[in-house]
Specification:
332 residues, 28% strand, UDP-N-acetylmuramoyl-L-alanine:D-glutamate ligase, 10 helices, four-stranded mixed sheet, alpha/beta
């Protein structure tokens, strides 16, 4: 068995805390029956609706699917979407004792409508977002911080999953750093376009769009990307930076180490990339918590990303799938 498979086999011994914005990903499936008489639009005959954990919830669900013990710290609205989402998370094996349900919040929900003709594959035709306000009340912030202090005490690693809905604001990041203190555990960040507000953590996993937004320009070639990534790593005080690049694989920038490019695995035509970044950081963090090097953790994350994009909707990867991928790769 390869060293990567051995790392995966130790996942069940680890406890990971995810702090951030849990989102209800809702998928409405239907068949296009005819054109409406009221307007030049198709009429969709509803088939079924699925609700799955998204955002920090998807990250937590992936960790649980990989065999880890997982605690999620987040804030949801005390509404139908919040109740369904918290139920789905518990079914997935996630400890939700730190998930707060507030009557003053609305659960962030992203509704994707997938339509098609009879016997055809359903394709996403529109997404409707029900966003929440970004700021948390003082009371919710205090409760969140109390839950973080309690959960982090027994954690082997922490993930901050910031979708800019309040549960993982930069101030929370500062509090996490204080709560971890001198404990030498990995703390990783996944932040949508404000990674510069989260400094001096272990690592982060920006995608190319987020990376370009941080730098204010796209990198024209791999050498330029590597140079810019190293400058950003130093500026933010990270030990490593893993830039995810879709079909172009990943680039790992680590202190005092030559840049590592990892080619994408699996099909060049993914089925669905929804939530793939959550799968990547979940696998990457869990591997680091299990003693893997940054390079091996990135390789496992690359395998996990290659698996999950071949699944429709917001999906997870299991430890058995990951081991199979690791053993089936001749380069490992």
């Amino acid at each position: 068995m390869s060293r990567l498979a051995n790392i995966v086999n130790s996942f069940s011994q680890k406890r990971i805390v995810v702090i951030g914005d849990a989102i209800a990903d809702q998928f409405i499936y239907g068949e296009i029956s005819r054109v409406s008489r009221e307007a030049p639009v198709f009429i969709l005959r509803h088939e079924h609706t699925e609700t799955t954990p998204g955002g920090a919830g998807n990250c937590a669900a992936n960790l649980a699917a990989l065999g880890a013990q997982v605690a999620l710290i987040s804030v949801l609205g005390n509404d139908e979407a919040g109740q369904i989402l918290s139920g789905k998370l518990r079914e997935a094996g996630v400890d939700c004792s730190g998930v707060l349900l507030s009557d003053r919040r609305r659960t962030t929900t992203k509704v994707r409508v997938l339509a098609g003709q009879i016997h055809s594959t359903r394709q996403q035709v529109i997404r409707i977002d029900y966003d929440n306000e970004s700021a948390l009340s003082t009371e919710l912030q205090e409760k969140l911080r109390a839950d973080i202090s309690h959960a982090v005490a027994g954690a082997d690693a922490v993930i901050i999953s910031d979708y800019n809905y309040g549960a993982a604001a930069p101030g929370i990041g500062d509090f996490v750093r204080e709560a971890v203190g001198d404990r030498k555990i990995p703390v990783l960040v996944d932040s949508r376009f404000r990674l510069s507000s989260f400094s001096n953590f272990t690592s982060a996993t920006p995608n190319e769009d987020e990376f370009a937004e941080l730098l204010g320009a796209e990198q024209t070639d791999e050498a330029a990307l590597e140079s810019a990534a190293e400058q950003l790593r130093q500026r933010l005080g990270y030990e490593a930076l893993l830039v995810t690049r879709g079909g172009h694989g990943m680039t790992l920038i680590e202190a005092n180490t030559a840049p590592l490019h990892i080619d994408a695995v699996g099909s060049r035509q993914p089925v669905d990339g929804t939530g793939a970044g959550d799968t990547v950081i979940a696998t990457y963090t869990l591997a680091l918590a299990s003693g893997a090097s940054f390079a091996d953790a990135a390789r496992l994350a690359n395998f996990a990303g290659g698996i999950v994009v071949m699944k429709r909707g917001t999906a997870t990867v299991t430890s058995l799938e990951l081991i199979s991928a690791a053993l089936g790769n001749n380069n490992e």
